[in-house]
Amino acid sequence: MELKSRKKIHIREVAPRDGFQSWPNFIPTDKKLEIIRLLLEAGITEMETTAFVSPNAIPQLRDAADLMGLVPKDGCIHSPLVPNLKGAELALDSGADKLVVVISATDAHNLANVHRTVKESLEDLQSIFRLAKERGKPVIGAIAVAFGCPYQGDVPEDSVYRLAEAYINGGASCVILADTTGMATPTRILQLLGEFKNRFPQTPYSLHLHNNRGVAMANLYAALGVGADMFDTALGGIGGCPNVPVAAGNLPTEDVVFMLEDMGYDTGLDLIKLIGAARDLEEILGQTLPGQVMKSGPRDPRLAAKYVVARNREC
Amino acid sequence: MELKSRKKIHIREVAPRDGFQSWPNFIPTDKKLEIIRLLLEAGITEMETTAFVSPNAIPQLRDAADLMGLVPKDGCIHSPLVPNLKGAELALDSGADKLVVVISATDAHNLANVHRTVKESLEDLQSIFRLAKERGKPVIGAIAVAFGCPYQGDVPEDSVYRLAEAYINGGASCVILADTTGMATPTRILQLLGEFKNRFPQTPYSLHLHNNRGVAMANLYAALGVGADMFDTALGGIGGCPNVPVAAGNLPTEDVVFMLEDMGYDTGLDLIKLIGAARDLEEILGQTLPGQVMKSGPRDPRLAAKYVVARNREC
Predict the structure, then answer these.
(1) What's the total number of domains in chain A?
(2) Mutation choice for B interface testing from A190, A233, A296 by most B CBs within 10 A
(3) Which residue range is the domain that position B118 belongs to?
(4) What are the tens digits of pLDDT across the range B64-120?
(5) Contact call for B293 and A214, based on CB within 8 A
(6) What is the complex's ipTM, to 2 decimals?
(7) Residues 93..152 of A with a Cβ closer than 8 Å to B: which?
């Protein structure tokens, strides 16, 4: 197959936050570090390394500051998630390169997620932007349930654009449109992205797609078609908001990289190393993960056979 | 969301063949019938009900003739798979409405699948077409490994077109392009479909997409964009060629229907009944299936909540 122009796609790895947060048990810090190191070796250049949230609410990430003190800093932007000003302070004190602020597009989900209305979260926003600016660090504004809310159903697009506007006015470097609960389909992706680009043509945006209904990869492909070039993905396809019933994981990083590279895009990532990291993760978690390429191997039969053999030996 | 013109999409259900064939254990005929009845209640109008293959090679389908004698015939086209003339005779004798002949695009896979070279399979083809014509039944020609071969890797497109030509010359009513091992990506789908439609503009075609590498739904969406309107899918996402290492299932019927209906297409199928059937199937098989909508429920939170509750109660 002839390669097209190798358009660059930026992958932001979220397994260390979205995945480790949603795992029932606390994953020991040294195991988290092992996976993070493997991700860096595979070429990951930006990572949602952890979240600075209440250790009572999410004990799985209670080691956030310790972990940030231990992660290799060279060559990777660490952009942890922060739900409020206190989280932002802790994250910046621990050496975060960038912050991800998240607010839901609906009160119902925001209340479930951070126990505040959207309005209350927005009141905190200016002080977070001010603090980050003082420290010279950029802020990404993430909009949860942008394509549908598990409590409310359809989300008025205006709620999404109002939040985006608040982020952009605050100085956000990028807006993440999150399909937190896998309620998007390609038509909805094209509709929202089209209008978003229309309203905010200068604002870089990224997509964060969950696979609760099996449609996430089609959504990513639809977004590619209208020029999207930044995506959140998670090694092995782990992840899932703890405040969403029967949440399903993010798009598996290695599956996304397989598809994009085969289509002629340049992710800058090493598929074989990602598969290795995903298998290591599976071993640490002791459970089969949703990722498919980690089970079937790359496309080249000589390479795939090697992986299949290795797997059979494990079984 | 405004509905576009409700373009019809034809779903051909393959779980009873592709799924039951690949399950390690023989599923009792009455359980197969139970699932088939639920599929018919959900609106399925065409089904790969079974395969007429050697019971030694595939004991899981040794009840093919019995099953065909018991399935409800009204309102559904039963199109079992046949690998050779003997299978075609048995299928027609058992009341098949249509036959699906399958030949691989590569010798390596055809030898593994039916112990014959492509040339040897083609020699049988004319007698199968003749027999079906005598009985007044149409024949679908399926091309396995059309997008990549797990033994050989890339498949020269000409091998696919040569097979298609043989089918069309024989009088096939439709050609199925099968990504038997999940080696397609959207670029490959667009390339092959574009040239196929160019060469055979009058021939209806269908896509049979496996999800070994997590890309099948994106492939389906890509195909939709160039006018594809027929797909093979399998309830719960079961399936997988027994001659493919670490095969993964077909696209789950209910996930495909969820996406298509949300996008404004008309599948004529009842999503809620499909979810019910998929959960029944999961119970019969005693194993979590790949389908996602059966776990997360439909998009409407009131309906989804009902499903989530029902599921939690089961756990």
Answers:
(1) 1
(2) A296
(3) 10-273
(4) 999 999 999 989 999 999 999 999 999 999 999 999 999 999 999 999 988 999 999
(5) yes
(6) 0.95
(7) 148-152
